[in-house]
Amino acid sequence: MPESIIKGYYENLRKGKLIGNKCKCGGYTFPPTAACEHCGNSETEAIELSGEGALLFVSHSMAPPPNPRFNKIAPYAYGHVCLEEGIYVQAIINGIDIEPESLMKYYEKCPVKVRADIIEAEGLPVLAFKIV
Ligand SMILES: [Zn+2]
């Protein structure tokens, strides 16, 4: 993946913008890469996604964060989100208590509407969502 795609992804994320790629095949690729993840076409168009979606499932990890840069924000809720564009992502869900009773409440309510709510960990923006 060319550096400019990664750099652009983080620069936009820092501004609260979710930029993906849309392909002629109709598929989206997010986070953006050098080629469409559906058909491999490298001629894709950068497109700003709505940042709106539905939280399908939320839980928390019993394991330590996968990267030390998340240590300061752990423990956190982690969820599966389907963006309005039909893109499935896994991300941190802000503002959710990770106690079992709280998670059970969301388990019973999902899908619930969420909106991108970018956070920062050790100087890098991180994709996260909040309940709306
Ligand atoms: Zn495609």
UniProtKB/TrEMBL annotation:
Transmembrane segments: none annotated. Residues 13-44 form the ChsH2 rubredoxin-like zinc ribbon domain. Coiled coil: none annotated. PANTHER family: BLR3430 PROTEIN. This is ChsH2 rubredoxin-like zinc ribbon domain-containing protein. It comes from Geosporobacter ferrireducens.
